[in-house]
Amino acid sequence: xxxxxxKTLSTAVLFNWTSxxxxxxxxxxxxxxxxxxxxxxxxxxxxxxxxxxxxxGLINLGMGAALSRFVTKDLTEKNFDSLNQTxxxxxxxxAGTGLIVLLLSVLLRRPAAxxxxxxxxxxxxxxxxxxxxxxxxxxxxxxxxxxxxxxACERFELASLLGIARQVTYMSATAVxxxxxxxxxxxxxxxxxxxLVSLLVNAMIARxxxxxxxxxxxxxxxxxxxxxxxxxxxxILLSVANxxxxxxxxxxxxxxxxxxxxxxxxxxxxxxTNFSTIVSSATSMMGVRFTRLVASGNLVELKRSYKxxxxxxxxxxxxxxxxxxxxxxxFLRHWLRREMPETLEILQVLVVAYMFALxxxxxxxxxxxxxxxxxxxxxTAVESVVNVVIGIVVAREYGALGFAISTAATMSITKLTVHxxxxxxxxxxxxxxxxxPMLYPALTGxxxxxxxxxxxxxAVLRDGSIYIFFIAACGSLSASVVILVLLSRGKDYFPPFIxxxxxxxxxxxRKAVDRxxxxx
Length: 520
Known about the structure:
Layout: H1 3-54, H2 63-76, H3 80-115, H4 123-152, H5 156-180, H6 184-209, H7 222-257, H8 262-283, H9 286-296, H10 299-336, H11 343-359, H12 362-369, H13 374-416, H14 418-426, H15 431-455, H16 457-463, H17 466-488, H18 496-519
């Protein structure tokens, strides 16, 4: 990997984290505001609309993941005729699926309100909001095209800046419209309008990056569509699993505990989504890099990059996850300033399972790069079916917490058995070589939990002020990072761009000490 490529990846991580900071910071500020303006019932209905809209993406049958791989491969090989054939075929496909989504939103608006126990007085507004939200989903279908081009060009910083601009626009407009006309419909209108503006801007930038890209309807190909759908068939199963884990619970809670109870579950699952985003922000660009390395046949660099990515993802997963377990109760109390039944318990149960899942996140990028994701996708599909069956049975008795326990249990079984074996196999690594980058991050997270329990820190945080919370959190995170760096520095999976900077810092400190010693 050249110095320029390393700089591109490290810059991409920083921009991705900046984008996440804007998103999560805005969500932290906006969620209590929206909750106060709409009330628990109104907030719950908006969450249900979003959850319902999330399932519309399944209609695309994994086309987004397939498009990213095909576009990256075509640009790497500079095969612009193939690129334009892919783009034309995908846009035609999205036009058809978009029409299906619009029709479904119209037909299902009343049955959905009835099934989800939406109050009769709110049902008409709920139905209109479903149609508006569906329109935003359709717009985002087409936005995937320009996103794939920007990502394939490895302009990760540009993609992050565009995401930041979109999020800031959405948050600002939402705050204004809720102040003027508080309604979950107005929030949906803002979301859809923001998606449209973002689509136009991204399309113009993608066109400037790759002038050779174009849409010619005569290039629409049934054969290319079959290739894309064949690749996407596996990734759609992964999407189904993620939707079941974090969105299906909203419907089950609404069915058995009422619309207002959805707020508590959605807040916990939203924090899990943010947790997942932090990890993916650091490793998402590796999917493009893996595809390029596979296409160029550089298998040595492919293995090395894979292990580095596993170390980065597991570091974030175990360090942040362990701190969510320690500081979660105090955080929720200071953030929401109200009691949210079961939210903490749901969050803790899901965090444990997601630490093991997110630590192995780069393996999906490796699978997709080599088109070897179908087996693990089928395993995940079986996991999802088992989760649904057990989750519904348990949720009847224990509500949202029961479904969270079912999700965590089924996910953990897969992530601790099949996933490590297959993740190692596709990269031609031994299982212990695959697990080695995760060892010290896992031990660091476990040390954090043990210290918090033995020192009584958890009890101090429960009754402490927000200042104690921030001081303790910053101190604990800093200590965890230092311990992990000392343990891992010099290993073949330690990120080279961090190692080089640490070396410069150490050399500078030594020179300063030597200079001061000689002066003394």
